[in-house]
Amino acid sequence: MRSKVLNFVSVIVITTFLCQPAFAYPDTLRPKPKQELSDDAKPKELIRKMQGAGHKWSLGVNSSTQSTTFTLRDAVTGEILLQHREKYNDPHYARFGAPEGFLTDVHARDPKSYRVKAIMLAVAFYRGMAMVRQKVEANGWLMSNIKAISGAGQQHGIVLLNKKAREILASLDPNLSLEELEKRLEEIFADPEATIWMNKTDGTEKGAARITQFYGGPLETKEATGSEAELRFSGPAILERYDGYQQATATTWGEVDTILDIAAFIQALCRGDARTPWGWTDASGTNLMDIRTHQWREGIDELAPGLTGKLTALAPPATVVGKISPYLTKFGLSSDTDVATFDGDNPSGAIGQRTALEPDTCSVSLGTSDVLTAAGIKKGDLKKVLRRPTRIHSNVFVLPTGKYMEIACVQNGSLALQSIRDRCIPNEEAAAIFAKRHGRQPDMNANEDKDKIDVIKWEIFEKLISECPPGNNGAMMIPMNTQEEVVRIPFDPNNPIAFTANLTDLSPQNRAQVLRAAVEGRILFLRWLADQMGLKVTRINLTGGASVSKTIQHMVADIFDANVYMLKEDREPVSGGSAINAWKGHYDSTHKRKLSWNKAIGDFAAIDEEKTIHPDRTPNGRVQIYKALRIPYADMIEHARATVPAARPGGETAAPQEAGTLGQI
Q1: 648 three-state secondary structure
Q2: In principle, which of 55, 224, 295, 454 could form an S-S bond with 145, CB 3.0–4.6 Å?
Q3: Strands, DSSP E only, in 75-171?
Q4: Cβ distance 369 to 300 under 8 Å?
């Protein structure tokens, strides 16, 4: 049965959110700095800059965990004109107290709580628009060439608006400065704090239990919504707020007029419409939308009074939902610019990487979280996927193409690896190298110096893991810095390196082997997930921050036994996918015949053929070495799962399951 399902899917590992500075994509401006033009080439360059030259551009926005990214694309030529990123660890955003993308003080009080000031997301969007305009005009171009805007947001986050938001967003004066705008927008929130995707508190656990009870059980919940009740999903986060507002808080449930996910919130800013619709793709990550009909499930007002009315309508992907807000004309945009449905970042990334259209392609991206995805599932095969026996916690989301993707999200991604790196490589060691390079000691209060120290530590990390042989002489680890949910594995902050095999020496003298075990363990974990889902990987597009590591590139190729391809460096798949969605929505609204997804994407997901990595399939080569580790690594996971009972969100306790049965995470 599984092999038949595989005919309709491709495999992706997508980073839901950006990773740490050492692994971040650089800001990329296209075209490259001008070179001296020949006389024959000059007219073409002049025409390119002429007003009214018929350019058709689209802008994609990605409001993610640690930054807001913009991609400007020429819809006709497919050229990436520029990319810009607003990073939340920039000094401009220090006043919001979320340098890593979540409120540090809130997280310190409750390590399970992940929130952000909603106003920061708005400021990043508007400030980013100003920077995009600055870069566009510096090249002699016109913002009015942008015909459509779409975007994506970190899936599962929620923003709560009050009744005043309707009037305020609809009547923003373009003459307001960004500082005046920020003060005005502070009035629109029923709760100033937005929940983000990493949130998994006691309150969301109670919310997940109520949702499970509402549908009649975990399997019934997945059958109805595409996922078992997820602590990190929007539905449990909404119920956490509802339950909390019944206590003595500054906000009451009655003050909440509109509930938007983060993507829809940025869409509301674009539109000037607080009641802008959610997209199907993001709503499929709520436990509240029917995965088949793409409508809010009937009866969800039983979970919280008036919930349906607080949620807005649902809209299909790549569909024009209106024109831009008058305020956005401040940035040189035409008032006739279309706004197309905003999506979740995972589905948008599947478009930006083209994997939604290529069933033989697997894409791996390693970031704050790692996500294993099977894309391109047809509606007729949905039942097989939802009912397929599996031992992991997976989710089914709607793709912009109308098909489906199944994902298994690993929370212990780059941050877990970084935490182990920091235990093994002290700041003092990196500071000594910094001093030799720059002739001074680093200022650890300066972001630029901190970023350089971080880069140096990754350089040391790369050198150390290269000292150990592939397979690490059998030493393995499950790298963690938080409880894992894709398969329930507990985390003890007092014993962060708890699950190992053939690795007893954790001393500084053995740090190379410890680090090698951590990074190999990260890739082996993903391979284990692929095996649990019954997926066969034949080709991998490698993206995400850690893809810059040559050692990790070869690990991925050898552990998955597949060719690894690198996307061109100027391709940020999520905001790029949004730019593609924007153009398709605009084109379809102005033409009788719709634009095919194949033509809409074009060569955006261009492969850098020179960087192809081939697995080592020689006798006794690396593929064989890692193949021998897969069974003992699976045994280590079983041991980790058995350390505590795995409690379902519905409340009952599930013991570890035999292979091939429906296990609990």
Answers
A1: coil
A2: 55
A3: 80-87, 115-117, 146-153, 158-161
A4: no
Which two structure tokens, joined as six digits, stand for 104?
């540090």
Residues in CB range of 647: below 8 A, 6 or more apart: 488, 653, 654, 664
Integer Cα distance of 189 and 465 in angstroms: 48
Asked whether 369 and 411 are in contact (CB, 8 A), the reply is yes
Kindly state the helix (H) or strand (E) to which residue 280 belongs, with its residue range.
Answer: helix 280-283
Please give the torsion angle defined by the CA atoms of residues 565, 571, 572 and 577, in that order, rounded to the nearest 10 degrees: -100
Euclidean distance between CA atoms 561 and 624, whole angstroms? 9
Residue 514 confidence (pLDDT): 97
The alpha carbon of 646 is separated from its chain's Cα centroid by a whole number of angstroms, namely 26
* Residue reference for tokens 């919504």: 225
Identify residue 452 by its one-letter amino acid code: K
- From the list 471, 462, 478, 160, the residue with the least C-alpha distance to 307 is 160
Strand partners, 261: 158
Return the pLDDT at 360.
63
Q: Tell me the C-alpha distance between 610 and 311, whole Å.
A: 48
DSSP state of 395: E
Contacts of 445 by beta carbon, 8 Å cutoff, 6+ apart: none
Query: 80 forms bridges with which residues in the sheet?
Result: 73
Give the model's pLDDT for residue 644: 58
The predicted pLDDT at position 88 comes to: 94
Name the token pair of 604. Answer: 């955006």
Residue with the two structure tokens 């081939």: 614
Q: Rounded distance, CA 658 to CA 643, Å?
A: 16
Residues 326-342 pLDDT 10s: 999 999 999 999 999 99
Q: What is the pLDDT of residue 208?
A: 96
Q: Which DSSP symbol is given to 249?
A: -
Enclosing H/E stretch for 639: helix 622-641
List strand residue ranges (DSSP E) for 420-505, in order. 476-477, 500-501
The CA distance from 587 to 399, in Å, is 19
Q: Which two tokens stand for residue 8?
A: 């309709």
- Give the whole-angstrom CA distance, residue 559 versus residue 522: 11
Spatial separation of the C-alpha atoms in residues 550 and 558, rounded to whole Å: 12
The position carrying tokens 């949910």 is 485
Distance from the Cα of residue 177 to its chain's centroid = 31
For residues 354 and 601, is the Cβ–Cβ distance under 8 A? yes
> Tokens for 241?
């707020």
Cβ count within 10 A of residue 598: 9
Residue with tokens 């025409």: 47
Q: What does the DSSP assignment read for 105-164?
A: HHHHH-TT--EEEHHHHHHHHHHHHHHHHHHHHHTT--GGGEEEEEEEE-TT-EEEE-TH
Contacts of 523 (CB under 8 A, 6+ apart): 552, 555, 556, 559, 560
Task: Please give the span between the terminal C-alpha atoms of the chain, in angstroms, as a whole number.
Answer: 23
> For a pLDDT cut of 90, what percent of the chain falls above it?
62
What are the backbone dihedrals phi and psi of residue 296, each rounded to the nearest 5 degrees, phi first?
-60, 135
Rounded-to-5 percentages of helix, strand, coil across the chain: 40, 15, 40
pLDDT of residue 594: 94
Contact (CB, 8 A) for 628 and 378: no
Looking up tokens 């704090």 gives: 193
The position carrying tokens 């058995």 is 642
Q: Closest by alpha carbon to 629, among 477, 436, 409, 494? A: 477
For residue 130, the 8-state DSSP code is H
Interval 103-150: pLDDT, tens: 998 888 888 899 999 999 999 999 999 999 999 999 999 999 999 999
**CA gyration radius for the chain?**
24
